[in-house]
Fold these 3 entries.
Entry 1:
Amino acid sequence: MKSRLTLHAALFAVAMALLAGLGAWLLFGRGSVPIQTDLLAMLPATEQQPLAEAAVQRLAHANGDRVVLLVENVDDDRAKAAARTLGKALAADHVFRSVMAELPPFDLHEMVAPYLAHRFFLLSDDDRAAMAAPGYDPARALAQRLNAPFLDGVGTTLQDDPFGWLQHWLDQQPWSRSPLLPEDNLLVAHQDGGTRVLVTATLAGSSYDDTVQRRALAAVDAAVAQVEREQPGTEVLRTGAVFYAAAARAGAEHDVHLVGWISTLGIALLLIGMFRSPGPLLLAFLSTAAGVLTATVVSLLVFKQIYLLTLVFGAALLGEAVDYSIQYLTARANAGSRWDAAAGLRQVRPALLLALATSLLGYALLAGVPFPALRQMAVFAMSGMLAACLSVFWLLPAMLQRAARPLSAAPVRWALALQRAVGRAGQGRRGRWLALLLLLLALPGWQRLGHDDDVHLLISPPASLVTQEHRIRDITGLGNGSQFYLVQGANIEQTLQREELLEQRLQAMVRRGQLADWLGLARMAPSQARQMADHALIARSLPADDTVPASGEAPAGDPASLRTRTDRARLQSLLVAGGLRSDAAAGYADTWPGTPLDFARWLESPLATPFRYLWMGCNAQGCASIVLPQGDDDAQLQSAADRLPGVTLVDKAASVSQLFGRYRRYASLWLFAALVLVVPVFGWRYGWRSMLRVMLPPVAGIALALAALGYLGQPLTLFHWMALMLVLGVGANYAVFLHEGEPYTAHRPGAMYASVLLSAITTLLSFGLLSLSSMPALHDFGLTLLLGIGFTVLLVPTSRPPVMDAP
């Protein structure tokens, strides 16, 4: 038998060595550590349409590798000098592919020139409404234009646009509405008595790559420090995915260190104090290390990467994985001189297998949630638990051949006193009164329970970053990007027409103060139908040739034939009479009727480059575009899309929140299903009457944990319910350990409950510490486990008759 145990240990050691080599290669041998800090990657695909999900990903990564910096100073010269210095400092670091501080020299007229050929097809909303109303007088528009003051920014010349129609249309465009305007070859905004200058940079790699993050943050910090030193009074605001990803990684590393070191130190002190020797401590950690190593390798093989949630969760896994080795070490300590490694293994095997089965059941239900991060946590835990349990079966017996000293007397006495007190309180009439009292205490807590499914509770970004992003948004006019409209049509023309219908509603919201603005392609390149209708309005407003009969009017869709209705000489006379030079009037009249703007050609132009990501393209199913509402999230955004064909409001956060809510509601059914699955197993093992006593502690622990959460004002989330499933599995383990171990420790009352308390405390030291996590999801998870396991282990003695003194 001894040789067999040795063979199993050797095989297990070889397997762990191979896994360690594979894990080292997976973690460090492929260029970068595969730790995923992208929040979107942890979220499930929730959109009903694949195109909508593709649009979510496109928007998420369109600016994902861009760094936005805003330099502020009350002194105009210092602000501009600081921006130039910042740009040069960043450009010197190769972590940035490109840096834009100073604009290349260009004439603002270059932004107007591409539209001149299409000037008679582009009308602003106000001009369109004015021309459609009776009594419109183009001479009045001409007079207003001639008497208008000099225009800053993107402006048309008088001879190119004497009526101001093109100028009014340009004023509606994103580059004209932005508070940032070119000044001294910089993008500058003057607000609140100070100067703000925009500096942007594009990373040479992914924002979620650890190496890129560290280099980019170091470069930005060094450049900002230089600017603040050289230009006193300068403040640099920052935003970008790289800052959020780095903050999330730093928070996860802090949580890992907090949970890992405190739980490791606490477990070490407990094991040494209980077993009075460092040997059991080393063996327990060896078993746990085997579990964590296996879990990491399996997760990397299955998912190719490790999520932040899993990283912190893995540190907490120490406390549960060590339970299996604790039970074997306790059996050895209680056996004394009669210890036999193989017999000890046979003694604990039923309890460990039953405990493993209940734990795996809880994690398997967790794996059924269509949420990548939770699924990875479940796979991590299941593989880790399995490996830790196998280490007890295959590794520890070969290393624990000799007898050990008994458990420390003091902890056993304390455990016995607690076991007797709880056991007696739970018996007979006293037990029924105690149950009634606990029920009365729990009822107000249950009544106060609510729920919150907001996906933003998944992770909490630093308040300083959020504040800076909001300030940058307010100053630059950038949108929040969390909600957008997906517009679909059979072809380009129908897509643009549907976008224009949506934009009419959005503009109405802007007028009512419900929306700051929006960004859409149809505003910059209208549909052909819109352009032809505008062209017809202009033609109707200009002087006409009275010799052409009304019945001979050309259709609105034929711009060339409109020349017959609009008299060039009369148009020139109108312009000259209004005060325009004759040569300028003649030149303008010669441009009539012009040509419509072609969307496909415009999309390929340099002007469209910053907005090209809003076009989803065309395929056999049709075409699609994105419209971005700008400003704070507004619940009325859905009303703008109601009953508009081909228009869908896509809100990733709301979609995931709805999914969380749906699965939170399902979670109670899953918990009941897990209970139903465990009951027949326990009934088969302990008999139906004893089964009720075994199941009482974890069920009561769950009920009391819910009441405590209600008293604490904690709204229930999906993560609370996932933790309650684990309370059922882990809590049932403690009742199993007590039932299976008590017959072997009758000579030493309290010893088995002492080992159960030891297992529970190690679990609380790890999973309970998650309640201190900076990630709200893990905080909820840890707090629920802390309460549930705490109540369960205190109630475990009620699952057996009161303990009597040994004869």
Note: The domain at 65-103+185-239 is CATH 3.30.70.1320 (Alpha-Beta Plaits).
Entry 2:
Amino acid sequence: MTGRAKVTLRIEVEIEKCREESQWTKVIELAEQLKDKSSEFEYLAQFLIGEGRLENYLEEWQPVDANVNKAKLNLMEARRNLQIASDDKGRKAGVALDAHLLLGKLYFACGQYEQGLNSYKLAELHTLTEKKLPLRSLKIVAESFAIKGLCLQKDQSSTSKFKKAEREQEILKCFDIASDLGMLYMQELEKQLTQNLTSTGTHSPQIPVVKTGMSSVLEQAMQQAPAILLQQGKHEIALDRYRYSIAAVESHGVNSIRLKLLCQTAELLLQGFPDENYKVPSIVTKDSAWKPKLYTGLNQFIPRNKYEETILVLIVAEAIAVRNAVLSQSPEFKDARHSAYLDAATVYDLLTLATVRWGQVALLQESLERAMKFSFKEPHLWRQHALSLISKGEHERAFAVLKEVIHLEPNTSVNCLLAAKLCFEHLNMPVEGTAYSDLALKRETIHSSGLLSRCHLYLGLGFQLQAQSTLTKSDKTSLNNSALENFQAAVQLEPNDNLCEYYLGLQLALIGQIGDALHHVQTALNLRPESSSTLHLLALLLSANRQHEEALQLVEAALEEYPDCLNLMYVKAHLELHQEGGERALTTAKQMLELWKNLYEGQTISDIPECDRKSDTRSVFQLYTSEMSDKDTSSLQAHSIAASRVEHALSEVASSMSSFSPRPGPQRAWMLLLEIWLLLAELYLALDQQADVLKCIQEATQIFPLSHHILHMRGLLHMHKQEWAEAKLCFQNAVAINPQHVKSLQQLGLVYHYLNLQGLAETTLREAAKIDPTNHVTWYNLGKVLEALGEYESASSSMANALTVEITSPILPFASVPLCFD
């Protein structure tokens, strides 16, 4: 008898071990052996066999509505076993309670929710004492509370409003307890595995991997608890529930649900949580055998506001998503790789919303950089990466990433349009931008997505920008015609798009059709009256129509709506100089300097990237003065890349050979200040205040000492003093840096004329005329040179040409209008 008792004891120990390790087939085999050893184990064996059959089935088939009929058919034997174990004799054997709990689980899988609730009533689940439980029992109790809550949700037999409220509270209580017990179970499971490894002599520093995750019913309970609170409008309590679950010490088996909870917390903070209701996290630990262990420590970071908590939650979520990422490209890992990618994509989408909203683009870009290692052939994250790089100002890298996106999505046109926009707006690559616009048009023609009009618009813009930088007359005419055709096609396809009308008006203005241009720009303004770019273009058109007073009134009215728009203030200064003299224009320029200090001075003394600051009033001031108003330098977008690189190279040389060092902070802000100082210098020169001109030039030199624009302004000052040799040297240096700088060529030709170098003067001015044939100053200066050479007929023709061009010349070139994409 003693030997037999030892055998049964050994079997019981082995059964418990197999139960904890979920080896259900082995449990059934051992239970059969136990039953054969002695009849006193009949009811224990029935329970174990029923449990094994139930768990074996549920490992293969989840307890969902689609599997109800299958469960009824396949769980008949398990039900019989558990019902035997739950009768009076089973109670005496000590297995009736667990049998009732497992029957509740079985009835739930079979869709018999009322019977399930009855089982939990018979088990008196709600009266269980909160005490330390064995691992398997802990899981059974946790799942019982979860399933009871789910059964109560499914069984909506009561119609009483009071009963419904009572039921909701009972459901919430069940889910809360199930959540706590579920997390506690996973923590205890990992702890036991660690102890087992230690007892066998394995001292690995790594935490053992829990092969099985939290069961689906426990995951549902963890998600449903805060969801019910949200449905009841209890956002603060729901947030505290999320916080409590997240604060539980992590175990490997809860990675999946933890990631979901983190994302749901972020969604709540982003979408449904008013700022005034936000309270700083304060997790209160409760001393109970049924509560999970929480993270504690003196140096824990506690968010101070909603924004910090959202970012923190998403950074933790990203860490889990990256850790779960499947890097192997083997076919057998395809499903796991795709599932992990979808989880990560959800996190990054939320992170995009949060970081962009609060101006933390650099943080987003760093995160997306990490995502690239597991985003092979996944265009969504590649596109997000490209957009983050654009926002951060890393345009060349963004362009390289967009090329990959275009390759990954061969039927999508929008990526090609993004690449084209990047080429036009930031990279000064009109040829490449035109090619991508053409590719977008071809894709859109085959796979329409409603962007055909926009494809023609971008294609027209590409031809327009190419025409501005082309010197050959025939090529320029051909490109202008192509631009006009595409803009007209865009207007026909989308007559209510203000951008189409705007660019058609701009193209007509560029080819000298001022009347038609006015019509289309006014149409664009009717479609979108708040567009500052359209108002800017309309003011230039009015000035080209010799309506300078009306143009000034328009700009002043526009500045009432956009008081911090440096573009419009710049136009205003030139109109005032033309209409009312330099003093009035000087006042406007000084206001621009004050505005720059308000908008940008803080940025230049901060190490936060410009792209990471929110400013609803940040100006889009384009880089152009009267000295910079030719096609290559009329705006930041159209600034000559070659000239810019030469200038930067020279500045680096200067910094290595002298005490000059580049100003800290965003360079764009400093370049805007440079242009304002040059404008002030120009206006002081018009007022013959030479000392002030020199001071302005010195201020500009402190920012960017070897800019060809500064050299040009120095040349103008020397010309004003009739210091021809010094002026010649300045203009020659400016042209050496940027050979297409029309203003420097004009003045250099004039200096040659004053120095009686008429041949050089003619050559220089004809080069300027080739670059910009619509500039009346060039033709006038050329007429003076030809007259000095005795070529009176050619001089007369040139002067006449100057008069003809001047009649339709705006106060500033049309090419100085900023590129507009919205």
Note: Residues 40 and 691 are 113 Å apart (CA to CA).
Entry 3:
Amino acid sequence: MRTRSTTVTVGVGPLSFEDVVAVARHDVPVIISPGSLAEVRRSRQVVERLAVDSEPHYGVSTGFGALATRHIPVERRRQLQRSLIRSHAAGSGPEVEREVVRALMLLRISTLATGRTGIREETLQAYVAMLNAGLTPLVYEYGSLGCSGDLAPLAHCALALMGEGEVRDAAGTRKPTAEAYAAVGLTPVALAEKEGLALINGTDGMLGMLVLAITDLRRLLKVADIAAAMSVEGLLGTDNVFAADLHQLRPQPGQALSAANLRTLMRDSAIRLSHQREDCPRVQDAYSLRCSPQVAGGARDTVEHAATVAGYELAAAIDNPVVTHDGRVESNGNFHGAPLAYVLDFLAIVTADLASISERRTDRFLDVARNHGLKAFLAEDPGVDSGHMIAQYTQAAIVSELKRLAVPASVDSIPSSALQEDHVSMGWSAARKLRRAIDGLTRVLAIELITAARGLEQRAPLQPGPAAAAVITTLRQGGVGGPGADRWLAPEIETAVRLVSSGQVVEAAESVVGPLN
């Protein structure tokens, strides 16, 4: 198992997915490399020369957006920066999750550390200190159009850097920022020319949520294969269709990886061997069983495409204007979130489809016309007991919601800023709905797992393969009960969700079959 780093150093190459997760979820502290600090100081000198220039320069001596035609006198420029942040910190709705805000902050720090934004070294170090102190600015659900960066979310973080607004401290207590700063010995920053723009003109919220989503989906894809293998086994399906040579006929890389997982997971199953004979009347399994590698494989390939896009963005320096390596200050459109918005939407589509095929496998376990000898709804005493009937309803409700969440956000655009910003990406919205979709997929897979486990146990005295047995043991030891009379299922479903989310289900399977793809 990989050892988590004790620090994440920014400025020695692009951040990795592991770096983002370490800071966002595990509070690993951040430091800036000396080389990055030197570049930050060099580019700041460029901005300071422009600040005294008689010619107007966007973001340095002008207003912003549709107000960029106004030249701002020197004595009003610090007020300009403060006003920018205060006016842009206009989010609304529920608070955004702590891990998302921390990822957003780290990624903005990463761009600031490139030296392409013209920010001062002391401002960058103050941002790092806020992050390392565990202070999390309150960021809200609504406010970003995914173009000109995630303006409102980033502005709420910049507001905290100024000592204003509200934060949650490391213990999660909501406080005025000034009070939280005093408690940890930090000093607010008085922003100078260009710094307000540098703090808010990035795709960091979208990117942070994309990196976290890819991390979660890579784990859930393994869970999807584990659940599928247990369902195929419990429904007396065949693993012949997962043979390597059959999948070589269609050389989709994710499909081959998923099929290999299924072969590994179904190895040495007594249940499988019990019906692997010539007089077995089964010719072909239903699509939800037989085509599992094709669906999960396509999802895998989509996730890896999204990871490629995220990798490009992790290597980017997003700001407008930017200070180039040769000292020019140039306007650009790199803050447009389209590349991220597209893959965030694409991931919501495959998330919905993974959940859809999982729900169909669960439903087969409950129907006596299709479950090959199991009790109706896997109930102990059908009629008196309802078994997993309503657990499948819960799955169905979630799958229906996931289909709605799969409607792309990136096809929409609403003009803003007096038509200066007349085409936007809606990437933040795509990321927000993807987070809800991933939560839904986790719950759907958890219900399939507990249903498949119950079905496999009803095949006794036949025993499942080692992988399925290990997962069932983990479920039972975690508090998910086995077959029996009806009981309150909601807590057991939540336990299974926790075991999926924590990685314990994957660890259980891999403990007996080795690493899965």
Note: The radius of gyration is 26 Å.
